[in-house]
Amino acid sequence: MQPAIPWKHNVMQKKAPTLKDVAERAGISLRAVSAVVNESPSTARISATTRARILDAMEELRYRPDLTARSLRLQKSDSIGFYNGHGYIDLVDPFAPSFFMGMQAAAAKASSSLLLFNGLHLQPLDIVLQKLVSNKTDGVVIWPTPGDANLIEALGRTDKPVIQFAETFPGAPSVSTDDDGAARQLAEHLVSLGHRSILFRRGIIPLASETARFAAFQSVTENHGVRLIATTPADRFDHLSDKERDMILDGRDITAVACWHDASAIQVLRFLDEHGRRTPDDFAVTGFDGFDWPELDDTRTLTTAAVDWQSVAGTCVDLLLQRVNGGDIPERSVIQPNLRIGTTT
Amino acid sequence: MAGVSVMSVSRVCDPNYGGQISPEMRQKVAHAIETLGYRPDYVARSLRKGRTDTIGFYYGYRGLMHFNDDFTRRVFIGLQDELTNLSQDLLIYNVPESPRLPAEIVRDVGMSKVDGVVFLPEEGDEEIAHLFSESYQNFVAIVESMPGIPSITAQDADGSIRLAQHLYERGHRHIMYRKSRLRLTSASRRFDAFSDAARDLGMRITATTTDLLNDEISGEEVQIIREVGARGITAIVGWHDLSAIRAAIYSRTIGLDIPGDIAVAGFDRLSHSITPRGLELTTIIADWQEIARRGVDYIVKGKDAVRVEHGDLVRDNDGVPEIQVCSPLFLGNTT
Fold first, then answer.
1. Among A48, A164, B22, B276, which has the highest number of CB atoms less than 10 A from its own CB?
2. What's the ipTM?
């Protein structure tokens, strides 16, 4: 087949090297080479030296497998998608860094890459839907807001493996923390300390997690005949609204401020510091998350529900991959937080 | 099934046609996606379009992004900003913790079908960087420059010269320079430029290195800092802020006043939790966020369309562009 005419030979040289060329160069069977290049399960039986020889030959010949074609054949992308309904991964508080690292580590363990979808939250539902179910990824971790309820329901009706992180909207499996149980414990704790009028700082977005924590506080305080006043902060950074400032400064009979998450409690502590109020003497303060904050140290620790968000996120990825590989996974997985009694109550 | 034409389905599934489709049509198509299990084939689509609208990000040989440091945070924020502006997805390559051959890593990356790769090299990543640049036309290194590879960096050399001039103007004539233990082009460019500038200005340099992690002060450095007065050293420069802050903290613990007894300066202006309250380090501003943004720009818009602003330096090394983002002097209270 190969004519010995020099110019023709040159043309042949320019052609991309094939798997066969690699096998010849490495002096190793085509089957072994193909196994390594295609990462087939039988690769495990190939020794490290043989593997190295094959990779060397690939490099010498500048062999590049046709990966797009391969991916079409296998219908597998070896990537996990991450869709975030907030539109932006905010790194100002420790929440995003912590779950992001958990996802990354779990994906790395499974040799999967992470695909972050950007700017999708502003797109209409069908566009988001078709992008998330596409073969760009093997499955998708979703960090939803209430605005994504329809999306989750729609995704639940497809066979695309998806899982919700931290939230429990109906329609798709989730890994979250025990928002209800831990919030109940915090509420019982405040009630047992004698607080009869508690301010509850909600979030500005009614996430499933946020709503569950608030509902738990409502239920406990109602049972004990304790007054619960709900407020919302001025912005998404949990700065205090004018109303909240007034309510706390004029004292009334509020003796405790319970916050739906730590970041909100930290803003309260800062505010109390600025105005010379003391915890827990003037006000008890509770959070939810259990992060390390610069405002806290050995002498001041926050009473909170400590959640291992890194492991919640890691479990999300593990279960998602289990589902991708055809396994069954529970609809609701709950990682228990630890109640941590600090010096703020 | 949905009772709409194939053309409409295909349009609904292409974000670029987004505006022309009625809400009712969208509803029908979304319904068909659910009931028929229709899956848009993005891989096939990108073969047709010639682009995937996805950028790869490769972060050092060890692969994981650790957000507990300000540097990684800023790089990530920059990437995210620009990707959101340009409606691009980001594929972060995760490299298993076991050491792997660079060729294997590049091969894995190739599987993922991206339009190009932004690469943030670590020490020892030269080989993999070259494999990348041979495999991908659209490839750019950020933060660190490497021969033969397009890059977007801070002004490591020019920034360091600015710092040397500033210290000279403040009357310093003998400076201790804390070099990096890492073999990074950024670190060596900073030191080389600083010491050349210092020599030209007639200043003396006592260079030190620490083998300790996180730029902790070494035994040798303890000795030198204890004797700064006797040796005539009046300023300490760290190759980056963390190194300078360590020196500042140690100087204070032995009772030295900053900047009265000893001036301290760094490079990058990152925030570090160990910074003592009230200490504002004199440093060079390295805008990592902007550098990451330009990296995305380079891949999405192409090398001729990358933003260049006043104060930036652009070099052409035999056809390989290098953009150095403006890195001005920040005057703190330590010099």
1. A164
2. 0.79
